[in-house]
Amino acid sequence: MTILFVDDEETAREQMKLVLSSFSKNTVCVGSADEALRALEEHHPDIVLTDIRMPGLSGLELLNAIKQKDPAVAVVMVSAHSESEYLLDAFRFKADGYLLKPFNFHDMLELLSDLATKKVTEGKASDNGVEKKEFVLKILDTLGGRRAEIMEYVLNHLDADNIFNGTYDEVAEALGASKPTVVATFQIMLEKNVLTRIKYGTYRMNMNVSE
């Protein structure tokens, strides 16, 4: 995934570059909406995080331009608490999420992970179906950390029919992970239609996921 971060403050860009590098292999940081539109053409980002208030074109105007150009790009608006009134306009222009300053980086990475998972699982089926290896690599690239380990464990224990048998407790014990982390990861996979629950402890992996 490629992430584009837009903020006119250099300190914010430097800080975000450091944080996002742990989540995305490709992170582009620019200082204005005009630069962002050029970066959109050059880097084709999957997710854009943009400050709402900037000199020149505002973040809202950038959001509107991006959605008109490519609605598939997920756009997250960033604002200070005192600017929360702008968020109504952000959703009117179909923002995919918002973050308030000062950043809670854990919440930010959770939001980005959810958006990345959604992008991976939507509209990826080709005429011949999605190859399992390609699907695995894309999912693991977006999740990172313990979620990636849990997803990888599920994928490595699928039978010939793409069925996984195992309870939350069994997965947690096998990986030395906390049960809440396992539950949260499975919940994301279920919500995004990556997994379908057949019965207690039995799931089908949906390799060809479409909306």
Protein architecture, described:
- The protein is of the alpha/beta class.
- It is about 50% helix and about 20% strand.
- It has nine helices and eight strands.
- The protein has a five-stranded parallel β-sheet with strand order 2-1-3-4-5, sandwiched between helices. Strands 6-8-7 form a three-stranded antiparallel β-sheet.
- Helix 2 packs parallel to helix 3, helix 5 runs antiparallel to helix 6 and helix 8 crosses helix 9.
- The chain is elongated, with a radius of gyration of 19 Å.
- About 5% of the residues have low confidence.
Q: Spans of 5+ residues with little confidence (pLDDT < 50)?
A: 124-131
Major β-sheet, in short? 5 strands, parallel
Extended strand count: 8
* Structure annotation, total helices: 9
Structural class: alpha/beta
* Global mean pLDDT: 81
What portion of the residues fall into strands of 2 or more residues?
15-25%
Instruction: Note the overall shape.
Output: elongated
Question: Reading side by side through the largest sheet, how are the strands ordered?
Answer: 2-1-3-4-5
What layout of secondary structure does this protein have?
Elements: E1 2-6, H1 10-20, E2 26-30, H2 33-43, E3 47-51, H3 59-69, E4 74-80, H4 86-92, E5 97-101, H5 105-121, H6 132-143, H7 145-156, E6 163-165, H8 168-175, H9 179-191, E7 195-199, E8 202-205
Parallel strand pairs: 1-2, 1-3, 3-4, 4-5
Antiparallel strand pairs: 6-8, 7-8
Any key phrases for this structure?
single chain; 211 residues; alpha/beta; five-stranded parallel β-sheet; three-stranded antiparallel β-sheet; 9 helices; 8 strands
